[in-house]
Design goal:
Strand 5 and strand 6 form a beta hairpin. 28% of the residues lie in helices and 35% in strands. Helix 2 packs across helix 4. It is built from 5 helices and 8 strands. Strands 2-3-4-5-6-7-1-8 form an 8-stranded antiparallel sheet. It has 205 residues and is an alpha+beta fold.
Amino acid sequence: MAERCPETLTNGLVLPSAGSGPLLQRDYWAVIANCQLTAPQVAELVARDFCGIAPEALVRFRPCTAASAARALETGDELAVSIRMAADCRVRVIHRDRNSLTLGTLEGHPEAGRITFGAYRNDRRDVIFHIRSRARASSDVHYAGFVAVGEPMQTTTWTDFIDRLAHVAGDGVIGVIHAETSELDDVEAEDPATICSPTFAARGE
């Protein structure tokens, strides 16, 4: 039986069942060219400099406490988020392991769900950086706004994130940054194994 996620992590989370519109899975990934880091080191880099890697022209992340600003993000830390053309909101680190970091949306966020940032190697031993979100709009109003402008802005934000990271960890990306969106049939079960779990398993090394 899965261990129940503590209330310190779940309190205030906006879960998909409370949202509006379709539950979407969005994947963004690329191979890092001549990566100078191992996959866990790439994940550590993301946890240590998440706010600096995110493209500030579209979205700005800020640690909510001075203590978290001075170290890598840890489970339970919160980030203040300023999204262009949207109200300020927050996210919380709800899972972290050696290869990935997962953020969950808090009350006031335009989406309801979570997003994982992870690194792993492919069969050729190249390092891949992968972002996968599973979320829906947090309300009917936010759903209308997302349909109008949110989708392309989100794609630009996370593909820019990958590109910026790839130029820090290596020589950019090999080929293109892939982006794919699929609709999930049902809202995920909100049990202890799901609420604070990553959206995909990044393993290796």
